[in-house]
User: Fold this.
Amino acid sequence: MNEPLTDFAQESNRAAFGEAIRRTKSSLPKEVPLIIGTKRLHLARRLTRKNPSHLSEIVGHISLADPSHAEEALAQAEAAAGSWCRLSIPARAEIFQRAAALMRKRRFELAAWEVLEVGKSWMEADADVAEAIDTLTYYPQEILRWTQQTLVGQVPGEKNIYQHEPLGPGVVISPWNFPLAILTGMTTAALVAGNTAVLKPAEQSSIVGLHLAEILLEAGVPPGVVHFLPGIGAEVGETLVRSPRVHWIAFTGSKVVGLRILRLAAEPTEGQRHLKRVIAEMGGKNGIIVDEDADLDEAVIGTAVSAFGYQGQKCSACSRVIVLESIADRFLKRLVETTRSLPIGPAEEPGTVIGPLVDEEAFGRVRKAIEEGKRVGRLLFQGQVPDSLDGTFVGPVIFTEVPRDSFLAQEEIFGPVLAVLTARSFEEALAIANGVPYALTGGLYSRHLSHIEQAQQEFQVGNLYINRKITGAVVGRQPFGGLRLSGTGHKAGGPDYLLQFLQARTITENTLRHGFAPLEE
Assistant:
């Protein structure tokens, strides 16, 4: 059963969460160390993390690992691999159940850190923590299916065993947009499968990452099994990926970084006696098709939520909506008014829907994309940011008359920017939807049964959502992951995700023998 979301309609929940934010604010700035084995290292070289809702407010100081720290952590992870993989599956599963209980107890505290560190709204932050708890309970249940010895191809006189074993030490490189859920999911899957791991969080979400590392250690994960290594990706991340000690890399982030990891991991280095496995989720340029007979009330709300939830900073976000020409005017009129109604404000305010972008770099990049977009398409709507705000705020933007081959229609823009394209027929709409290099999520609003069936066959995405929003996949219900340049592996939160962290062995024994050799005394 999935962890329920918090009902903020209840006054007691609103009061408790508001108090968690106030309590967390009073503890700022947070000092974030490295954790290597039993050592917590506070370094002079640090990154200062600002609250994206209030740039004058310092959220934390992040110690930055260097390549020597990466080598030390990997050496300890390699040394701990043997004892950890020999620990029984029930004993491992019990550790993660304790971690889930700790996370439930600290749920509002963890969500409050997400509000302050990465600018998530109340509901977005709460949902991220709930998903993290789901992964802590789901993967320990799933591992039981893959670690049982299986008898295969049995014939008289021969015993054949097929079994799965852990890969060895590896690296988790996580994003900032789902700072707890994705980091927890990748880490839990790797550890419960019997591997050891070095966690490299995104620079923007190292405080949330620290809390996960501390929860795992408190729950009973041995110190040598998991290590926490905040740092600059181009520095410590490259060292981790290149190391011959690393057997696997679990990555979620941009296509540019993901493709570089794949290239680096493909080339064996001196001393390496194995091929590295890369599990990569690399974003999307996701489209929603609005058919002629769609329920426009549902389609408008679903598109707005999918496009502008968490300021469009989701790999699953809708950045293209493909509307049949006959209903385009009606749909757009409603979409603009719905978007206009979305409150813009600091993430800690309960009524905020559109909060800040994650940092000043993202702010500059999205602002530049909007200005370039004005030369490509027609700016239909741009939300106005109140002058009183001092964070990295960008109002939601809707472009129409967007050429299909333009960057607005083809390239991922990690922000609240929506491109509208029109189609003369449903077949043309499908062609537009499929006409990008990504294939992560997609959606269809239609009441036409044959069009729904056609989309199920021809809409080439990893997660297709019909008559609902295209964000918010739930562990065990909507296993998540993409095709093409959106991903390389099995689906997170699904029944075969753990296979990526395991390797299979076949053992064949001839049982037609004459007695046994005596045991030596």
